[in-house]
What does this fold into?
Amino acid sequence: MSEQLHLAVLLSWKSLAEVESAAKVCVDCALCQSRKQVAFARGNPQAKLMIIGDSPGRNDDESGIPFDGRAGKLLDKILGAANIDAQKDIYICNVVKCRPPNNRPPEKAERLACRKYLKAQLELVKPALILLAGATAVEAILEVKHPISRIRGIWFDGEFGAKVMPVFHPSYLLRNDSKEVGSPKWLMWKDIQEVRKQLDLVTLV
Ligand code: SF4
It folds into this structure.
């Protein structure tokens, strides 16, 4: 789809429900052939904090809900420990809305084909803070290719006036169980505490 057509589509979507309805019947990339369900988003569309991951996993493909497997539950637990409620305080989605076969990373053409939905979500939710979970989300939004371990925990200026921070993807944390000082889980906890602080500030505005 051309950029002009993208824009025309975006302008015609007035609500997230309309965007989700369009995504649910989308055949704009090859991922439509292997998906069971489109996993569009979960959480609160009024939330100040948006979390963007890479693509739906196996459980998400079955349920149609992003971050619905073990990684999502771990993320909810970490957020909950910082008093960030997964139902009330966040809106969560992925760069692509359909599961790539065998959980491979989404290809650039797939990311571009799906970008209209993510862009519409960003425009309609208007989050003040965005967390990019994993390298694919960082590449898609910030257009940089850096190891997450180098840029996690840093706030960047986002395209929509939001503050944007790369963080570890929770599936990476599942594979790295240590909580020792300097471990990925320890760093993630540090990052989420910083997010909690910023969330308090933007909630006061
Ligand atoms: S991943 Fe996105 S662009 Fe591709 S078929 Fe699914 S909704 Fe459409």
In short: DSSP finds nine helices and six strands in the chain.
